[in-house]
TrEMBL record:
This is UPF0223 family protein. InterPro entries: BH2638-like_sf, UPF0223. Coiled coil: none annotated. Signal peptide: none annotated. It comes from Halobacillus yeomjeoni. Transmembrane segments: none annotated. SUPFAM superfamilies: BH2638-like. Gene3D superfamilies: BH2638-like. It comes from the Bacteria.
Length: 91
């Protein structure tokens, strides 16, 4: 990984930063390996508690996709289409 995760160190607590980074890393893992659908959606739920604004989510996820090439939106969308317990693997 030769890029930085977009985080807001001025407003988020250390715990919130860790939770947001966990969500980004789960998206990353969905592209590089596979990840449990339920774990990804739980990480996304926590991400949305920290970033409730849709516009802020789009901004942060857009920055993440620009840096990494991995789409939070497409990953979460695919996860929601799968059954509980399934693994998600992005192409």
């Amino acid at each position: 990984m030769s890029y930085h995760y977009p985080i807001d160190e001025t407003y988020w607590s250390k715990e919130e930063i860790i939770d947001v980074v966990n969500f980004y890393s789960m998206v990353e893992k969905a592209y590089e390996e596979s990840v449990n659908r339920d774990d990804l959606l739980m990480a996304y739920t926590r991400f949305k508690q920290i970033v409730p604004s849709k516009s802020e989510e789009k901004k942060l996820c857009g920055e993440f996709e620009k840096e990494s090439g991995y789409s939070c939106y497409r990953t979460v969308k695919k996860a929601k289409e799968l059954s509980p317990g399934d693994k998600i693997k992005m192409n």
